[in-house]
Structures are given as C-alpha cells and as structure tokens.
Amino acid sequence: MLDLEIKGMTCGHCVRAVTRAVQTLDPAATVAIDLPTGHARIETAQSTQAIATAIRAEGYEVNVV
After folding, report:
1. Which of 7, 30, 56, 65 could form a disulfide with 61 if both were Cys (CB 3.0 to 4.6 A apart)?
2. CA–CA distance, 9 with 59 (Å, rounded to integer)
3. In Å, how far from its chain's centre is CA 58?
4. pLDDT averaged over consecutive 10-residue blocks of the chain (65 residues)?
C-alpha cells in the first residue's frame, strides 16, 4: 500500500487523470484519493518510483508519506 501526497489536484478531472496514470501501469491497482487533503492511497504491485513517475508525467508533484 502506497500513501502519497499529490500536489496540484483540484477537481474530479485531476482524480481521474491520476487514477488513469496508475491503472495504466497496473490495471488491477486500487486508487483512493482524498481530494481536499491531496492524499492518495494506492494498492499496487508496482514500485513506488514507477507510480510516482507516472503521476508526475501527468503534471503533479508527488511526495511519499
């Protein structure tokens, strides 16, 4: 389980973009995003680095919590 702080998410479109980026790498991943706090809990078999890179490619800043 990854716990990430994602800066720059402001709306439902952002949530979908982050979810899509994660699920492109791991279609079985579960993504739970708390938009007001900017935190995401991601259950995936992929590495933290791979997930963070995919989210950064969408234009967001990612910090591991």
Report:
1. 7
2. 10
3. 10
4. 96 97 97 97 97 97 94
